Amino acid sequence: MNLSKSRYCKGVQCPKILWMDVYKSGECDDSVMNQAILDAGNKVGDLAMSYFGDFTEVPYNEEKSVMIAETRRLLKKKTKTICEASFAHNGNFCSVDILRVFGASVEIVEVKSSTGIKPIYLDDMAYQYYVLAGCGLAIRKISLMYINSAYVRQGELDLKSLFAVEDCTGQAAAMQSAVAANITEFGKIAACETEPVRGIGEHCFNPYECVYRGYCWRHIPENSVFDVTGRGIRLDKKFDLYRRGIITFEEILSSGEKIAPAARLQIESEVKRLPPAIDPEAIRAFLDGLSWPLYFLDFESCQNAVPQYDGMRPYMQIPFQYSIHIQEKPGAPLEHCEFLAEEGTDPRRALAERLCADIPSGVCIIAWNMSFEKGRIKELAGLFTGLSAQLMIIHDNIHDLMSLFRSRAYYSREFHGSYSIKQVLPALCPNDSELDYHGLSLVHNGGEAQTAYAELSQKTPEERAELRAALLAYCRLDTLGMVKILEKLQKLAGK
Fold first, then answer.
1. Average pLDDT for 89-106
2. Which fold has domain 5-191?
3. Is 353 helix (H, G, I), strand (E, B) or coil?
4. How does DSSP classify residue 414?
5. CATH code for the part of the protein at 282-492
6. Which residues of 15-43 are buried (b: 16+ CB within 10 A; e: fewer)?
7. What is the end-to-end Cα distance of the chain in Å, rounded?
8. What sign results for the dihedral spanned by CA atoms 210, 214, 220, 225?
9. Where are the domains of the chain?
């Protein structure tokens, strides 16, 4: 088997992945792969190339021998920094993100878009160390370059502050015998046409969710221990129960295992087909804490590994859009206002100003998972001192509608253990096409909203208009959904 560093890391996670790649690649579920994370990694990698100054990049070529030959040519020219330097040893190939050449020795620099070191990164670096050492290179150091989460951009991007570089030579060198053993094992597995026996386990999720999980998990029934959501049962406990033959909801109940109340409610509601569990007093107490008019607020935000504007940190949540539904009194017609930032601009100031204009001082505001909206508003208040007083008044008057469902003051088996609005809304308001997220165009969830906003500046005017309309429709549905859910709760509580 010819390996690359990415394929080697797949094998470390689970050697069966490599066998599946050879014999059952059609079972691959590409939807598991997060394209936004992959794109962020590529952008960070491109930016990191200039960290050490001038560099020469080896162009990508399907024929790896071409890349290897170009690397040899650059090494003979004594090029000091080579990006994507490519090597092969006994059929094992790797491209080094950044190769620094110091006369007769080299430094390998692996670049990651994360904010720290993960064990799989050490496997990645150890494999590169193995290949380059096998090619006869003297390795003086191997380092990991990753994002410094404490960096705050002010002015021009400072690569020396954006990135942290950590020496991992000792760990990578100590893993060389394990790398050699792994390569031998992976080759044997891939060469055998018989499917390897490999049980499911934590490795199906760690370090990444496996693209073949649907194939390997096809024996797991619906309503299994793995369908218990939230913190009702920890993942390691789920696998412990599975290995003991306690898999279905019915088996969990009959086993007598001690489980958290939230998990028990989910399981019993499904097994016994129970009607919704409702705590009218808790609902009334929540409603009594509200005052009219009501402002239903929802933000959409984006995250970038590389901060784009002053005052931003890596992976900081930046709100770029909001929707507000307003109801002056019970039964009154709804009003609606919204904001969506112009693409290619820092959205924060414009959003903060419009938010202060759209929400009067002291009104009652409802959000779903208010910690998110509160967090963004507090960040805006710290950034724009002239708006901070009004922003903090908004912050202090937010109520969390999700709290009733998180605390199980209302629970229905149609929630499937979740308190996401996308589970709660269709359960409380079924068969309403106006409230159907699946019926939306282009944007159906927060991840798609973030991707759509990031792509706006790359679209034609027609495509841009279509995407902006889709973003507005999606955010609008979140606040309209809260209105409808609250109406349902008011009826249940007799208010």
1. 96
2. Lambda Exonuclease; Chain A (3.90.320)
3. helix
4. G
5. 3.30.420
6. bbbbbbbeeeeeebeeeeeeeeeeebeee
7. 69
8. positive
9. 5-191, 220-271, 282-492
